[in-house]
Specification:
alpha/beta; four-stranded mixed beta sheet; 5 helices; about 30% strand
Length: about 180
């Protein structure tokens, strides 16, 4: 009996060791500068929803999960807050709020020399009950990959940070979004 429980414990440890997390978000200084240039209106960040099926990305069989909360939506919320705080635009009590929903995302590390990632998020800006902006913003990212999983998997893992940076760059470049936060 002890033997079976020990095997179960070893199997559980092995399986949990295979799950990897996305690195913490690192704000893109050009994104922060763009926000500073375009607005001085405080914003809050609401919920960025993410369906359960979108909260695990498989990198050659290794599940990649968000390092913030239990979802990639929470990761994107955290990234938005980080950049808004650095731009001195974030306020937890502002009535003007950015929220959204992750629609699609994936990271592909199956290529021998190049990996790719994409994301689509429906962003909404509201002021009370009034919707000021409602649009799907997407981003794509390519990165060095390898036939060797020991290279491809960590590169795919790190690529998510750059993918979210590009997503937010594309959001801030949208003229309708900028008009909605002014």
């Amino acid at each position: 009996m002890k033997y079976k429980s020990s095997l179960g414990l070893i199997a559980a440890l092995f399986l949990s060791a295979c799950t990897i997390q996305v690195p913490p978000y690192s704000a893109d200084i050009s994104n922060v500068s763009k926000l500073k240039e375009e607005s001085n209106t405080p914003l809050s960040v609401g919920k960025i929803e993410s369906e359960k099926k979108l909260n695990k990305i498989s990198l050659r069989g290794s599940p990649l999960v968000s390092s913030v909360g239990n979802s990639y939506g929470e990761y994107i919320e955290s990234a938005l807050i980080q950049e808004l705080k650095l731009a001195k635009l974030w306020s937890g009590v502002a009535t003007k709020q950015v929220s959204g929903k992750v629609i699609e995302q994936d990271i592909d590390v199956t290529g021998f020399s190049e990996g790719s990632a994409f994301i689509k998020v429906k962003f909404t800006v509201s002021d009370g009950d009034i919707t000021l902006f409602d649009k799907v913003i997407s981003a794509e990212h390519t990165f060095d990959s390898s036939f060797l999983g020991a290279i491809a998997i960590p590169n795919g893992q790190r690529s998510y940070v750059e993918l979210v940076q590009k997503l937010l760059t594309n959001l801030y470049a949208d003229e309708e979004f900028i008009a909605s936060i002014k």
